[in-house]
Structures are given as structure tokens and as C-alpha cells.
């Protein structure tokens, strides 16, 4: 797709926006874009440069994303709301056409990479709690203050905050080097046409910087030898994170698409086409929280013999969460495709119920109490009736969010004990 209308081929050291930004290395890519670590010569800091494919529809999508990112930045001057910050945007002319580029604050690895890095074993509950607090802070801000629906929340679109300066230690700026082979130098092809002297100079300078970076590529988080393969400690990794990818965002009162969300994180009302609101993000949040705890996707529907992916998805939901209330099952524009008039699935007749709290204990070996607490937090978020789901704000106030770990509890006890002694003394 490095052709007309497609991706822009970037080489390390390429200048953007009149030389302000210098490409350093590729950070990731999506359907519509490639994302690069770039050096911002104006602020002397590192940024993420998202370069959109050039064809008209991609440019349109980028303008859309810029609109939503700008709104999010305007309402969050302190940059504390757990949403990625848009710093700048501009057009870049390349051999494949005009590319819209977004300059974003530089973040670390996605939660998907974190889950993979942890070998799909699930994270400790306290880590999950920290992540959930950030994501809920972001959602609360988007929903309540901006009236915005993200519509594509999932582990891939939540990035850890990178606490490390990539200039000082690019290797530890995330988990990346452990998870993937080094990416080599960009993608070849493309190539720029006329380059003036200043650009050439900038390029050479950036290349030297990059050479330094690649010398140290092989270390690992925490500096341990990379041959250790069994348990991977996440101790010391800061779980602060931010919501990214506003390419599918919409306004609560102005929606653009009927079919939203990535399959596995899609809410039942979207499948049934019953209309949706902010609570679709809460559904995706619930699926994401489950995945963090277990390492498995909550729902991974597959098309089967005589039924489609949608119907399997609905069946999986009911097996875990109980039967869908009839009114909801038959209330959508697509209900008749999947449900009979009693509210039973048409083609998948026998469901194997496995309630959430039992699943967490039996399959994922969570301690009973921990499983119960977490299931109590999660179940309301996965209500079939969208209006019954708690808001992000309500979730933030839920007891599970405010559990102090046993360790802290002990510390608190000691402290209050000492306080008592002090008072008595
Ligand atoms: P798309 O809309 O094409 O899916 P995303 O915005 O999700 O694009 O970005 C694609 C990938 O690029 C992400 O999954 C992540 O790996 C990387 N990325 C995006 N934004 C940043 C950022 N601000 N900092 C670091 N990496 C980023
Ligand atoms: Mg994405």
C-alpha cells in the first residue's frame, strides 16, 4: 500500500513541516496510517507523528480525527484527562499524494502489547485497577464534559504513558523491543524527490542520533537478561495510560455510522441495531477490563455451521451474562435475523451457561474473593440494557475501584494503630 493514495514511505531522518519534525523510527501503524517517533526541533522533545494515507477518504477521516482530538485538547488544558494530546497538524506532500499528519504526544506501548508481553497470563488486580482508573477518567471526560463517544475502545487503542525520555534511553521507552524484532530502517520505496541543503543537513544530524539509538536496542525492561522467559515481572512499570485513536469518534447527538466498534468489543445494541449512546464505550471498557485480568478476549465470536458471527457473538454474551431480556432481544432493527419472537436465538439453541464469577475462579484460577469483587464491578457494566449500565463517573466511585491492596491495607492498619497509640499516649 505504499502507492498512490496509500501510505507515505518515510525514511529515518526525513524532515516534516518545513524541517520542524525529524522522523526517528516507526512506532506502529493502523489501517489508515503509519505512526513515527519524531524529534520536534522547536520544543526539543519527542513526539508521535501519525501520517495518514493520502487518498481522499483517508484525508477525510484524518480531518475528522483532528476535529475530535482538538476538542479533547481544548477542554483539557492541564493534560490530565487521560486522552492523547494533539500538538499540531499539517499537510505533507509526498510522491503518493498529500498526507495529513497529526503530531501527538509521545506515548508508550499499547495494552495489547502489554498483554502479549505478559504472555496472555492476565495482569495482577492492582495493575488492572490502575489502568481502569485512567481509562475511566478518559471516558468520563469524553462523555460528560465533551459529549463524545469514542466508539472504538480496545486494548490496542489504549497506550501506556511512556515515562522514559526516548533520547536518553529509547530502548526502555516502552516494551517494544521485547515484543517485536527491531523494525529496520523504514520501508524503502517512495523516496523523496527534491531535497534542499537544509533538509540534507537535518537528515544527517538525525541519522547520527538514530545510530546511537540502535546500538542499545537489546536490553529489556528492568535491565534483565532477555533470556529469562518464564515469569515476566511488571513491577515498576507505571500503569498510567491514555486513550488514543479518535478516527471513529462521534458526538452523542450526532452519529455517523450504524456499525461501530471492533467486533470483539461491540455492544449488543450495535449488533441488533437498536440505537446506541455513550454506554457502548462502557461495554467495550468492560470487555477490555476482563481481557486485562484474564489475558483472553471476553468474546471472540466465530461464524459456524448454519450461523453467522453476529449470532455466535450474541450466544457467547448470553452464556456468560445470562439470557438477554426478551424486550431487548426483539427490540432492534436486526433482531428478527437472530431471535424468534420468544427471544430465543434462531439457530443456536443450546447455550452453555458459565457465569462470570465462576469462570474467573474455575478457568482463570482467581481467588474466590477477588473474583467476586471483580465480577460485582464488571457485571453491571455488561448489562444488556444500555441505560442500566453505570457511567464512567459511577464506575470511578465503585468500591472495587477504591479497594486498597492487602499491602496498603496493612500499612493503613499500622498507621491507624500508631495514630491510636499516639492519641492514647
Ligand atoms: P489507526 O487509526 O490507524 O488505528 P492509531 O492512532 O490507533 O491509528 O495508531 C496506530 C498505532 O500507532 C498504535 O496502535 C500505536 O502502536 C502507535 N501510536 C499511535 N499513537 C501513538 C502515540 N501518541 N505515541 C506512541 N505510539 C502511538
Ligand atoms: Mg488504532
Task: Describe, in plain words, how this protein is organized in 3D.
This protein is 37% helix and 13% strand. The longest helix has 22 residues, at 125-146. It has a six-stranded antiparallel sheet with strand order 1-2-3-4-6-5, covered by helices on one side. Strands 7-10 form a two-stranded antiparallel sheet. Strands 8-9 form a two-stranded antiparallel ribbon. The relative contact order is 0.12. The chain is globular, with a radius of gyration of 24 Å. It is built from 14 helices and ten strands. The site of magnesium ion has 4 residues, from loops. GO terms for molecular function: ATP binding; protein serine/threonine kinase activity. Keywords: ATP-binding, Kinase, Nucleotide-binding, Serine/threonine-protein kinase, Transferase.
Short description:
With 425 residues, this protein is an alpha+beta fold. It has helices at residues 56-74, 111-117, 125-146, 176-179, 197-215, 268-271, 279-294, 309-321, 326-329, 335-338, 356-362, 368-381, 392-396, 406-424; strands spanning 15-16, 21-29, 33-40, 45-52, 86-94, 97-105, 148-149, 158-160, 241-243, 250-251.
